[in-house]
Specification:
single chain, 91 residues, mainly beta, Ubiquitin-like (UB roll), 5-stranded mixed β-sheet, two-stranded antiparallel sheet, 7 strands, binds FE2/S2 (inorganic) cluster
Length: 91
């Protein structure tokens, strides 16, 4: 876990999947927050310098691009988590 929730824990639970495994977040979390609450990475670096976990958290740095099982790609920090989202995190 990269993030630890300090407040607003009363929001509704959202169930989604990471590499086929069930995961949970809270309604209103970004996909980036949801991923980092469930693990310590968003993707592997294409340049071999280790796992990536986002950087700017505001849609500017391009460090948090992720893919869904459908092949759709987007920035994890700019999209809210949705029920049954099926995210692929490359090793
Ligand atoms: S963390 Fe920088 S664009 Fe998403």
């Amino acid at each position: 876990m990269q993030f630890r929730r300090l407040g607003e824990a009363h929001r509704q639970t959202v169930h989604f999947f990471v590499n086929g495994r069930p995961a949970q977040a809270l309604a209103g979390d970004t996909v980036l927050t949801a991923l980092l609450m469930n693990g310590a990475r968003v993707r592997a670096s294409e340049f071999g310098d280790g796992p990536r976990a986002g950087f700017c958290n505001m849609g500017a740095c391009q460090d948090c691009w992720i893919s869904l099982e459908s092949g759709v790609r987007f920035r994890a920090c700019s999209e809210p988590i949705r029920p049954d989202l099926r995210i692929v995190v490359a090793d």
